[in-house]
Amino acid sequence: MYLYLTIGQLLVAPVAGLVPQGFTVRQPKCIYLVDPGPCKDWVKVWGFDYLTNRCIFYYYGGCGGNPNRFYTKAECLETCRVYDDPNHTRRKPDDDSDMLRRTSMIGIISICNRVNSKIIK
Predict the structure, then answer these.
(1) Measuring CA to CA, which of 34, 63, 80, 106 is 20 to 30 A from 41?
(2) pLDDT of 26
(3) Any idea what the Cα angle at residue 32 is, between residues 29 and 37, rounded to 5°?
């Protein structure tokens, strides 16, 4: 059981030390993976994906989560978007399957958060 909690915590931890070489972030909160949190009072919010330099929407549950949460796309872009350096090539998503993989990861993180909150109580 302890190992499961550790894996769940690793999935939702900030990845500040794991930013690929050549990527730039404007603020530390832009590095976090989007996290809907354990609650179920769903609100549409925006989170920054530093790998694609885009803001993506997701549904936040109303509690928990992390700082990578913005209530408008404009706020997300203004806070986190990095304007491309002409000498740097940023990874582009290949197709819709890339977004599907990210959405699936958000679902996994959400499930881990819910399980962790039930185990801890």
Answers:
(1) 80
(2) 82
(3) 105
